[in-house]
Design goal:
The structure is a single chain. By secondary structure, this protein is mainly beta. It folds into 4 domains: 30-200, Jelly Rolls, CATH 2.60.120; 205-304, Sandwich (Immunoglobulin-like); 310-519 and 554-582, TIM Barrel, CATH 3.20.20.80; 713-819, Immunoglobulin-like, CATH 2.60.40.10. The chain has 9 helices and 45 strands. The strands form 11 sheets. It has an 8-stranded parallel beta barrel, surrounded by 4 helices. It is globular and about 85 Å long. It starts with a helix and ends with a strand.
Length: 820
């Protein structure tokens, strides 16, 4: 034992002294991002897979690339007649804008040329795709390499056998998006990152580490690392663990004999580990190294977090021994005006806005997210419900996942788990959403098969699903325990109107989660002064009221949803549909045009909070919230309902100094339990003031709102987030139309023209209007209720970037930002 310890210490010392972890060593793993200089064309091309094909007339693009986001919008794009049973429909309707009204259908080809050096002859070469939308077929130097049809799945393919050393090599990818393949905008193209990976012949496999923290006690924690090594040789496996601050903490080395594949199991104990949590998302790093003759030949980096959690039937979710209410939102994968093309700046912006609201959880509805999205959740402190499918074998859309189910479900689900299992943010796997099989007797076995895959590949996390049938499968009314579909899942995920109390009484050991709630529809800045709850209400202007009390037939308002959770505290929490507006599903205007994006978001498509944002913030955060709605620009004498969202129990309203009384929250009223309401206030221009009152009757906080004058100038505001000169970061500039006093004009809709100077370029603009079909890349955008946003992409040269915004009859706005 002492001799083995001595040898291990000697090997580690030799590795450190020889400096063989250097990244420039030609024998080391090399990861090369394939971002620049792809050739792209729309439409099928004969022989485009061959190396000799002439692609000089094709467009040159950067990846990630979403070719369909550039439009144009058209109501005939992917229009079809269908019955959406999940929406309560019984007869077919022609649905417009369901997939965003964008031309995502068709074939797209990508080609990338690169040289493979002679010194790579003793290496293997792989190409990794984080996602390719969709039906990807991959060719290398004319040879067919492989395919992956599900556009959301990450995958890796080996290119080694077809390399031309010292010559030009051509990677070609054919993608095909079929009509009627999605219920929302799926994106199109190589919309996630692509990279080349050179490894030695004996190497750590793709997604080759499986890291868990099985034992966390006071004062110490055990890390278990299962490392998969491929090749054929005798090597040493050195595993190093680094602290969140980057300090080497512990290491372990094992000699292993690799014959095809070897999985090595190592336990490493650390003293006083820092726990990953929502408030303190501490991440550790693992470096896994393959050593031959005291020389590192391969290094693979992973990250993980120390945390432990459980779901309980009577007290919800616990993280690190503390009860945590899940305050989550569902998120589709598009990033607003830039579409589905992955961008870290856009992801981080979304999550920062949600975090400020008090959101602590994300459901990746209804598909695997990008790796960058989960990395951001790890770093910012969100827990994640990682979802795989929207459809199994029974058809929701003609060319949906039902066409892949038989051959690909296990491959896709396994790939998701292997890719994402080290993320501390991921606390459960979801295998579906409102799957139609839940309504059919006998098909619970399909659910079991997917749950079994999850348990086999990752026994550390529970499995859930979004069910919208509350007695699914083979239900015996006299024996409710025989509810076989729901019984397969560790966490019972209910969408909308589950009777939590009844289910709890019948199944006291079931863990319940509201995994899709509300579906409240609203438009930022538009107010219907009727201001009463409305179900599936439509208007000629194709907008929904921002009072936050309108909803489709299956849904409800936040007030109703809050009460249901408060009255059933054993439920683990909720995921609201949705955090942000997204492209497609423009309920309640599914049959009208132009409508190209949803109304469900708490935050609009441009990233501006709607009023209900503050209703959630008052409930979910520890901030002092006092928010007044609507705006104060009306016609003289109009009766205006004033609502106040606050976490204080009472407040007093003043208009131009006159008191309109004190309102207190009333738990006996649905719309008085979580908001304060003054029903009919006659409009007079001037100042509205609300003073919050504490439990002792003292004024403790006030908020004001003023009538704005005529539009006078454009005001530009940076979000203040530092940007790097990496050619990828985005700067988000808020555009406001303001009066002479600097007050936002809440009804302004001026067309604004953008010009960018310096070390950056214009990328896109948005305004939150679901009916605006101006292309997002157009350098002009109408403001919508006084606001829009411009997105500027940095170059690789550090320095000043200037945005100039102009409009007819207004003073222009200018702002400078610095990339570093």
């Amino acid at each position: 034992m002492e001799f083995k310890l001595l040898i291990t210490t000697l090997i580690i010392s030799l590795v450190v002294l020889s400096g063989c972890t250097n990244k420039n060593d030609s024998n080391q793993r090399q990861v090369i991002s394939l971002k620049q200089d792809w050739k792209f064309t729309l439409g099928d091309q004969k022989d485009a897979q061959t190396a000799a094909f002439n692609d000089s007339q094709w467009d040159t693009v950067e990846v990630p690339h979403d070719w369909a986001i550039y439009g144009p919008f058209d109501k005939n794009n992917d229009v079809y007649k269908t019955v959406v049973y999940e929406d309560g429909e019984t007869v077919p309707q022609i649905r417009l804008g369901r997939t965003g009204g964008l031309p995502y259908m068709g074939v797209g080809w990508y080609r990338k040329s690169f040289n493979v050096p002679e010194n790579a002859k003793n290496k293997k070469l792989f190409v990794e795709f984080d996602g390719a939308m969709s039906h990807a077929k991959v060719y290398f130097n004319g040879a067919y390499i492989g395919e992956w049809p599900y556009g959301y799945t990450s995958f890796s393919l080996e290119l080694t056998d077809h390399i031309k050393f010292g010559e030009n090599n051509v990677l070609a990818v054919r993608l095909e998006n079929k009509p009627k393949m999605s219920r929302w905008y799926p994106g199109a193209g190589l919309y996630r990152n692509v990279r080349l990976v050179y490894t030695p012949t004996t190497h750590i496999a793709h997604w080759g580490t499986n890291i868990t923290t099985p034992r966390i006690n006071e004062g110490d924690g055990t890390v278990n690392i299962k490392t998969t090594v491929k090749g054929n040789s005798k090597v040493s496996l050195l595993t190093e663990i680094y602290s969140p601050e980057g300090k080497l903490l512990k290491s372990k080395i094992d000699e292993i004999l690799v014959k095809g594949e070897n999985i090595t199991n190592q336990d490493i104990k650390l003293d006083n580990p820092q726990l990953w949590s929502i408030e303190t998302p501490k991440k550790y790093k693992v470096l896994s190294k393959i050593i031959v003759a005291a020389k590192v030949i391969d290094t693979y980096e992973s990250s993980f977090g120390f945390r432990y959690f459980e779901f309980t039937a009577d007290d919800g979710f616990h993280l690190n021994g503390k009860r945590v209410q899940i305050q989550g939102v569902c998120m589709h994968h598009d990033l607003g005006p830039i579409g589905a093309a992955v961008n870290k700046s856009a992801i981080n912006r979304q999550l920062r806005i949600l975090k400020e609201m008090g959101c602590n959880a994300i459901r990746t509805s209804h598909n695997p997210p990008s790796p960058e999205y989960l990395a951001a959740c790890d770093s910012l402190g969100f827990i994640v419900m990682d979802e795989s499918f929207d459809e199994w074998k029974q058809v929701k859309v003609d060319n949906g996942y039902n066409t892949l189910w038989e051959d690909w479900r296990k491959k896709d689900l396994t790939a998701l788990i292997h890719r994402d299992r080290n993320h501390p943010s991921v606390v459960m796997w979801s295998v579906g959403n409102e799957i139609r099989e839940q309504h059919s007797n006998g098909l619970w076995t399909m659910a079991k098969s997917l749950v079994d895959i999850c348990h086999e590949e990752d026994p550390t996390r529970p499995v859930t699903i979004g069910m919208n049938n509350y007695e699914p499968g083979e239900v015996n009314k006299s024996k409710p325990s025989e509810n076989k579909f729901a019984a397969q899942f560790d966490v019972k995920g209910w969408n909308y109107y589950a009777d939590f109390k009844k289910i709890h009484e019948e199944h006291p050991y079931w863990v319940q989660l509201a995994c899709e709630t509300q579906s409240t529809v609203s438009t930022r800045g538009f107010y219907d002064l009727d201001a009463v709850p409305k179900k599936h209400y439509v208007r000629d202007n194709l907008q929904c009221s921002a009072y936050g009390n309108e909803y489709p037939s299956w849904a409800n308002s936040p007030d109703v949803g809050f009460a249901r959770l408060d009255d059933n505290p054993f439920v683990a929490g909720e995921f609201v549909w949705t955090g942000f507006d997204y492209l497609g599903e423009p309920t309640p205007y599914n049959t009208q045009w132009p409508t190209r994006s949803s109304y469900f978001g708490i935050i609009d498509f441009a990233g501006f909070p709607k009023d209900i944002y503050y209703l959630y913030q008052q409930r979910w955060s520890d901030k002092e919230v006092l928010h007044i709605l609507p705006h104060w620009n009306w016609k003289e004498g109009q009766n205006v309902p004033i609502h106040v969202f606050t976490n204080y129990n009472s407040a007093e309203l003043f208009v131009n100094g006159k008191s309109y009384g004190i309102r207190k929250k009333d738990s006996t009223k649905v719309y008085g339990r979580y908001r304060l309401i003054w029903d009919r206030i006659a409009f007079k221009p001037g100042l509205v003031k609300v003073k919050a009152i504490d439990k002792n009757g003292n004024y403790v906080k006030e908020a004001t709102m003023e009538t704005a004058g005529p539009a006078y100038k454009i005001k530009l505001i940076s979000d203040g987030v530092p940007i790097k000169a990496n050619g990828e970061d985005l700067a988000f500039i808020e555009v406001q139309i303001v009066d002479k006093e600097g007050r936002v004009c809440p009804l302004a809709n001026n067309m604004v023209y953008f010009k960018v100077e310096g070390n950056g370029k214009f990328r896109a603009a948005g305004n939150g209007n679901p009916t605006d079909v101006e292309p997002f890349h157009s350098q002009k955008r109408k403001c919508f209720f006084g606001k829009s946003v411009a997105m500027i992409q940095v170059s690789k040269i550090a320095g000043e970037i200037k945005l100039i915004a102009s409009a007819d009859n207004l003073i222009s706005g200018e702002i400078s930002i610095i990339s570093r």
